[in-house]
Amino acid sequence: MHKHTSINRQILLASRPTGKPTSDNFKLVESPVPTPGEGQVLLETQFLSLDPYMRGRMSDAPSYAAPVKIGEVMVGGTVSKVTLSKNSKFKTGDLVLSYAGWQDYALSDGKDLTPLGAIAHPSLALGVLGMPGFTAYMGLLDIGEPKAGETVVVGAATGAVGSVVGQIGKIKGCRVVGIAGSAEKCRFAVEELGFDSCLSHHDEKLADALREACPKGIDVYFENVGGKVFDAVLPLLNAKARIPVCGLIAQYNRTSLPPGPDRMGLLMGTILSKRLRMQGFIISQDYGHRFQEFQQPMQQWLREGKIKFREDIVEGLEKAPQAFMGLLEGENFGKLVVKF
Amino acid sequence: MHKHTSINRQILLASRPTGKPTSDNFKLVESPVPTPGEGQVLLETQFLSLDPYMRGRMSDAPSYAAPVKIGEVMVGGTVSKVTLSKNSKFKTGDLVLSYAGWQDYALSDGKDLTPLGAIAHPSLALGVLGMPGFTAYMGLLDIGEPKAGETVVVGAATGAVGSVVGQIGKIKGCRVVGIAGSAEKCRFAVEELGFDSCLSHHDEKLADALREACPKGIDVYFENVGGKVFDAVLPLLNAKARIPVCGLIAQYNRTSLPPGPDRMGLLMGTILSKRLRMQGFIISQDYGHRFQEFQQPMQQWLREGKIKFREDIVEGLEKAPQAFMGLLEGENFGKLVVKF
Fold first, then answer.
1. pLDDT of residue A120
2. Which pLDDT score is estimated for A1?
3. H-state helical runs in chain B
4. Phi/psi class of residue A105: alpha, beta or left (left: φ > 0; alpha: ψ in -120 to 50)?
5. ipTM of the assembly?
6. What distance in Å separates the CA atoms of residue A201 and residue B234, rounded to the nearest whole number?
7. Which of A59, A272, A276 to mutate to test the interface with B (most CBs of B within 10 A)?
8. According to the model, what pLDDT value does residue A118 have?
9. Looking at beta carbons, which residues of chain B come within 8 Å of A280?
10. Cα–Cα dist B231/A265, whole Å
11. How many CB atoms lie within 10 A of CB B5?
12. Burial (CB count <10 Å: 0-12, 13-18, 19+), residue B329
């Protein structure tokens, strides 16, 4: 099945981006495939997940996670296959969830690996059954606390996280309004994912359109976008609305604060007058210990067809930088995964 | 004991302020003392509470509470005495907590009255044992969730709410840093109230001073001020910090948004990267049903001398407008109460 080579292709962080990442920030190098020592396994990457958080790791601004160092392999979750094992817990051919990064091969002592067993569709472990699905599940249910009849709004509606947020919102009996980057994505959100409505963030009258789509206001806004989507949401929030803050992709490439007026006090005043609850979270740090709690219902929803998913598969490690840069511009359609 | 007159002095809202309220926004009128009907009582005001939230009621901007209409009596909590009763539940001489507003006399059907019994110090029902103390208690404990060893920061440190927040923080084993408007107030916060440190918000190097006073960062920021105090707090917040948003007195008199840059996205980014929880609350709406839960511990802390209080008593209804305008400028020192 797999072609065994002696070359390990790796994509390194070559330099830190200012604003949008460019191909100059990445460097493809070749090195020998490493040899596992006692207790280790050699992993061969099958799928690499590309996710917006990686933009943060390319910067050295203070963050919850250490930045990738210049010259290091870019970080990333992978589905990998054990190709050599000197660890009694793993045998050749085992599929595992790993954090091997942007490279063909990696070593592991096994402690950071999750066996995937006989999984029909392994790349889902990077999407709806993995970190993005878990992020949607905990952010919406644990922080957003949606109640039947309430209105849930989510951006990046066809993305790995947003698509799951909206579908869980529907399962919980909410009105779900998505915001996405094209008419085609919006059609998918409504027709395939079951959203009640979906608006394009390119619509110049987004604020008006959102007001029409949310006649009873907004009770939960799952924040994974920021920028003008949040601007449109803010005046529509109901008293006691909840805002899980999961990501701000619209501002990751900013190099300076936008011009005024300064609306920080306006946001504070709205939090006060509407008694809002805003809460930031990092799925691995805040909910890592609750992963099993998510697996059972999500697998059941998948079996029952209540949760659908769409993947955007890019073939070949060498395409990862371009695909990642496109992700930050919203060019992907569905969960972005690199197939090796 | 009390001099019975036939005149009811009332202070009405004469016009809505633009920016800082002025004496032109208030009007003192005299009307006949009303006569209670069947089931009603006539109340004579003993003490009137002056509180920052009243600035909001003078505006007709959208809010959780209806604005005072032009020509209506200004709203406010009072300690009042029943002087005539046609309600079997009250007798002449009873002291009650009421919401009679800025006037000498008012009628009530009794439903909005809380009997105060034989209370040694009736004005405390407007302060440490009343709405401000309750606000501090619930905001700090229910939203802020301080743990022993954590650092709590609160503004308006000698005010009705801030002074209680800080003292409860000390009872819970926290390091408590206050911010107040003068060296005298800061001395009081440290020497009398037991704060670990207190800084003046007039200090041009407030951000540096706060950093020094919080060597382990800030875990709970009880927000009752906004403006430059929040600016100094924001970079010092620890991961998973909690921010009960109770008031924003520094911006109540704003007539427009401040100049840029626009820091709203910066605040969102900080909420995300530090996984902050910010939650606005309105004590009456969110916690009205839990008032009894607060009374027992607070009365005990007062008896034990663990909670101290300071009142700023102004004599005479006619002085209320000036005292209220001073409150918005931080001129009071302790809980501001008008004595009749």
1. 86
2. 40
3. 53-57, 131-138, 162-171, 183-191, 206-213, 227-233, 264-273, 283-287, 291-303, 320-328
4. beta
5. 0.93
6. 30
7. A272
8. 82
9. 271-277
10. 10
11. 12
12. exposed
Q: Which of A264, A275, A285 sits opposite B263 (nearest CB)?
A: A264
Query: Hey, what amino acid is at A52?
Result: P
- B-chain CB neighbours of A57 within 8 Å are none
Sequence-ordered list of residues with C-beta below 8 angstroms from that of B189, at least 6 positions apart, any chain: B157, B158, B163, B166, B178, B180, B195, B198
- What is the maximum alpha-carbon separation in chain B? 63
pLDDT in tens, A134-184: 999 999 999 999 999 999 999 999 999 999 999 999 999 999 999 999 999
Mean pLDDT, residues B154-164 taken together: 96
| DSSP code per residue over B267-304 | HHHHHHHTT-EEEE--HHHHHGGGHHHHHHHHHHHHHT
In this structure, the number of other CB atoms found within 10 A of the CB of residue A322 comes to 13
Q: What is the pTM of this model?
A: 0.93
Asked if A263's CB is within 8 angstroms of B264's CB, the reply is yes
Q: Which residues make Cβ contacts (< 8 Å) with residue A333, sequence separation at least 6?
A: A158, A184, A185, A188, A310, A312
Residue of B nearest to A61 (CA): B273
SS3 percent helix, strand, coil of chain A, rounded to 5, is 30, 25, 40
Inter-chain touch B276–A281, beta carbons under 8 Å: no
In total, chain A counts a number of residues equal to 340
CB contact under 8 A, B258 and A261: yes
State residue A119's pLDDT score. Answer: 84
Q: Exposed, middle or buried: residue A148 (CB in 10 Å: 0-12, 13-18, 19+)?
A: exposed
Q: Rg of chain A's alpha carbons, rounded to an integer?
A: 21
Please answer yes or no on whether A259 and B262 come within 8 Å at the CB atom. Answer: yes
Query: Distance of alpha carbon A143 from its chain centroid, rounded?
Result: 17
Residue B56 per-residue DSSP state: H
Cβ separation A279–B278 shorter than 8 A: yes
pLDDT tens digits for B73-102?
A: 999 999 999 999 999 999 999 999 999 999
Closest Cα in chain A, distance from residue B89 (Å): 36
Task: Report residue B284 CA to chain centroid gap.
Answer: 12
Average pLDDT over residues B140-149: 98
Determine the Cα–Cα distance for residues B317 and A237; give it in Å rounded to an integer: 39
* Amino acid at position A119, single letter: I
Where is A337: in which H helix or E strand? Answer: strand A335-339
> Which residues are CB-contacts of B28 (< 8 A; sequence separation ≥ 6)?
B9, B10, B11, B12, B317, B318
Tokens of A263: 């609306």
pLDDT tens for residues B250-260?
A: 888 888 999 98
B227:A265 CB<8 A: yes
Least CA distance to A235: which residue of chain B?
A: B62
